[in-house]
Amino acid sequence: MSTYEIKFSVNGNDEILAVRGEETLLRALRRVGYVEVKLSCEGGDCGACAVLLDGVAVNACLVFVAQADGCEITTVRGVGTEDDLHPVQEQLIEKGGVQCGFCTPGIVVSAKALLDENPEPTREDIQRGLAGNLCRCTGYKKIFEAVSAAARQMKEGGDS
User: Fold this and answer.
1) Backbone angles phi, psi at 123, to 5 degrees
2) Of 62, 82, 74, whose CA–CA distance to 112 is shortest?
3) Within 10 Å of residue 51's Cβ, how many Cβ atoms?
């Protein structure tokens, strides 16, 4: 199998990778240390591997890494830091929308994409925006409340 070189940026860090045509973005990101992108179903069913690809939430398991050539990728690490949480992260903690935490990185990324596109989402908008993210622990109510609270926080001048 032949390899070729691609370039992209992850959380502001330029990356140059030798890749194979069939390699997914998920596998490539994890191979170079971005393990916050969760390896789960690898079939696009759970959303645990969600990243922003040029600002659009995608399941990294469904994207060939070659499709990311020249793109800006944001993982949950690029959304907020331990010292400077994004409002979605703050509100997930505040509202108890996190239990085991496995799905949380994908939910944070998907919620950020939703709020970037729609800063005043309805409950139905939030449900649609997170429809691709499965959580086996929380039952979603607290997650939806957290996203709604994050939208209010951002509108009132919180970080975006």
Assistant:
1) -55, -40
2) 74
3) 29
Q: Is the pTM of this model over 0.70?
A: yes
Return the sign of the alpha-carbon dihedral for residues 61, 58, 76, 108.
negative
- CA nearest 107: which of 84, 134, 128, 87? 134
Write down all domains in the chain, each with its CATH number in brackets: 3-76 (3.10.20.30), 80-155 (1.10.150.120)
CA–CA distances in Å: residue 66 to residues 11, 106, 110, 112, 131: 18, 21, 22, 24, 26
Angle at 86 between CA 85 and CA 90, to 5 degrees: 70
The two three-digit tokens of residue 8, written as one number: 């992209």
pLDDT, tens digit only, all 160 positions of the chain? 689 999 999 999 999 999 998 999 999 999 999 999 999 999 999 999 999 999 999 999 999 999 999 999 999 999 999 999 999 999 999 999 999 999 999 999 999 999 999 999 999 999 999 999 999 888 899 999 999 999 999 999 866 5
Q: Classify the phi-psi angles of 74: left when phi > 0, otherwise alpha if psi is within -120 to 50, otherwise beta.
A: beta
DSSP one-letter string for 16-56: EEEEETT-BHHHHHHHTT-TTS--S-SSSSS-TTEEEETTE
Beta bridge partners of 74: 52
